[in-house]
C-alpha cells in the first residue's frame, strides 16, 4: 500500500470513505481509536473504557458505509452491511489490538456484527 501525502504517519486509511483511523492514548495509558474524516476528528474510543461497546459507530455517507467498535474477547468480528435484499460481508481491520473498523462501497442501512458468542445488528445513521 502506498502512503497518501494527506494520510498521517501511522494512520490506517479507509479508501472507500477517505477517512482514516489513528491510534491515540487514553487514561491509564490505554490505546484509543481516533476516527478522522476529511473535516476532522469525529470519534474517540478508549479501550476498556466506560461504555466500551462492540459497535461504537455505524454511518453511511455518499457512496460508502463505515462501522467501528471495540474488539470482543477473542478479538474477531465478522461484519456484514445490509440494505433490503443486498448484503456485503467485509473484512474488518484491527487497530491497536483493541478496535476494529470496516467499510464497504454503497449506502447500506444496517450492519450486523458477529462474534464467537454474540450477533448484533445496528442501523447506520446518515453522515453528511
Question: How would you describe this structure to a colleague?
Answer:
With 128 residues, the chain is mostly beta strands. The protein has a single domain, classed as Immunoglobulin-like, CATH 2.60.40. The chain contains no helices and 13 strands. A five-stranded mixed beta sheet has the order 9-10-6-5-13, with no helix packed on it. It has a four-stranded antiparallel beta sheet with strand order 1-2-3-4, with no helix packed on it. The radius of gyration is 14 Å and the shape is globular.
* Overall pLDDT: 89
With helices defined by DSSP (H or I, 4 residues minimum), what is the helix count? 0
Q: How many discrete structural domains?
A: 1
> Within the largest sheet, what's the order of strands?
9-10-6-5-13
What would you say the CATH architecture is? Sandwich
Distance between the termini: 28 Å
* Overall geometric form: globular
CATH topology: Immunoglobulin-like
**What assembly state would you assign to the polypeptide chains in this entry?**
single chain
CATH class call: Mainly Beta
Strand content: over 45%
Q: What structural category do the secondary elements indicate?
A: mainly beta
Q: Helix-strand pattern, N to C?
A: EEEEEEEEEEEEE
Major beta-sheet overview:
5 strands, mixed
- Summarize the amount of helix as a percent range: under 10%
> How many beta-strand segments?
13
C-alpha Rg (nearest Å): 14 Å
Amino acid at each position: 500500500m502506498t502512503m497518501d501525502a494527506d494520510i498521517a504517519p501511522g494512520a490506517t486509511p479507509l479508501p472507500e470513505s477517505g477517512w482514516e483511523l489513528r491510534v491515540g492514548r487514553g487514561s491509564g495509558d490505554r490505546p484509543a481509536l481516533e476516527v478522522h474524516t476529511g473535516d476532522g476528528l469525529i470519534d474517540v474510543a478508549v479501550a476498556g473504557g466506560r461504555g466500551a461497546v462492540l459497535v461504537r459507530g455505524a454511518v453511511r455517507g455518499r457512496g460508502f458505509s463505515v462501522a467501528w467498535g471495540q474488539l470482543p474477547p477473542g478479538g474477531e468480528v465478522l461484519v456484514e452491511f445490509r440494505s433490503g435484499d443486498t448484503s456485503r460481508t467485509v473484512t474488518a481491520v484491527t487497530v491497536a489490538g483493541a478496535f476494529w473498523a470496516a467499510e464497504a462501497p454503497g449506502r447500506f442501512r444496517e450492519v450486523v456484527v458477529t462474534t464467537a458468542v454474540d450477533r448484533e445488528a445496528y442501523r447506520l445513521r446518515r453522515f453528511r
